[in-house]
Amino acid sequence: MNTTELACPVHKTRLEGLFCAACGREYPSVNGIPVLLNEANSVFLTSDYLVPSKSYGGASSYAGSLDNGAGLRLIYRRIIFRLMESAPPKQDFDVRKAVEQILSSLPNAKILVIGAGDTSIEGDVTYTDVAFGKNVMCIADAHDLPFVAQTFDACFAIAVLEHVADPYRCVDEMMRVLRPGGYIFAETPFMQPVHMREYDFTRFTYLGHRRLFRRFDDIRSGIAGGPGTSASQLLRYAITSTSSKSSVRRWVHLAAILVTYPLRWLDHLSYAKSGAYDSASGFYFFGSLRAEPISDRELLKLFRGA
């Protein structure tokens, strides 16, 4: 990450090192990772990232999927995470294909990944998140991205926009840091249960997702997890909800995952059918920045469903 691209998350002016001349504030760095938050517009506090005992800083329940436990706990969490987060069995487009398409037209493209997690992609990539993790280069809240305008050629937000309080403001910020004609790739849930506890706010239908990106031309969009994946997730949560004791729920949850996992393969039967859009687990959108937004009247013509 080029530090000359960093901006004050409040004023959006270029930082001198990590100092903002506009407000006279020096932003902190933890183990070489800048912490750049507009606290007035964020649910996170800078001070949370400066406490050594908090391995990942920020939202402890958000960072739970990055658990660094050991022994049986670590094995259990890795099994659960792999089963829950494994890719849908049928998907016609994904992150890898989006990156390939971008790099084929812009070999030196600068790419921003919001909500990095364990994401790792090819190219000149800046990884940001609200918790420290394997690839994270900057702690940043998507509501106020700490980068100067028109810094990036592409922006990726994978399973992110359900976890922000105002997804429309976040997309506006993505547009601000994108260069003219810049690319966006997002995957966002529709028929999915709550995950990441209190850091889960929003779901989108296909048209709702398309409207979120109304300032982008649609290069490709569709289903990221079909009805079979939805059924598996919802039934798993239904089974787990039968117990309220955490010691029991842990094992009921694991059993529920194993029992419901085969339902995902129903995606192969429904994926190409229009009705799959009415109960899909989630949607993806890959597009390029356009001059004017599409109108809501135009939007209605783009409906996909039974």
Describe the structure.
With 306 residues, this protein is α/β, with parallel strands linked by helices. It has one domain: Vaccinia Virus protein VP39 (Rossmann fold, 3-Layer(aba) Sandwich). Helix content is 27%, strand content 19%. It contains 8 helices and 11 strands. It has a 9-stranded mixed sheet with strand order 3-4-7-6-5-8-9-11-10, sandwiched between helices. Strand 8, helix 3 and strand 9 form a beta-alpha-beta unit. The radius of gyration is 20 Å and the shape is globular. The relative contact order is 0.13. The model has no long low-confidence stretch (mean pLDDT 90).
The CATH class is identified as Alpha Beta
General form: globular
CATH superfamily: Vaccinia Virus protein VP39
What is the helix/strand order? Answer: EEEEHHEEEEHEHEHHHEH
The share of residues in helices is 25-40%
What keyword list fits this structure?
306 residues; Rossmann fold; nine-stranded mixed beta sheet; two-stranded antiparallel sheet; globular
Sum this structure up briefly.
With about 300 residues, the protein is of the alpha/beta class. The protein contains eight helices and eleven strands.
Write the layout of secondary structure elements.
Layout: E1 19-20, E2 25-26, E3 29-30, E4 33-36, H1 71-85, H2 95-105, E5 110-114, E6 124-129, E7 138-140, E8 152-158, H3 167-177, E9 178-189, H4 206-212, E10 216-223, H5 227-240, H6 246-260, H7 267-270, E11 282-289, H8 296-300
Parallel strand pairs: 4-7, 5-6, 5-8, 6-7, 8-9
Antiparallel strand pairs: 1-2, 3-4, 9-11, 10-11
Helix pairs in contact: 5-6
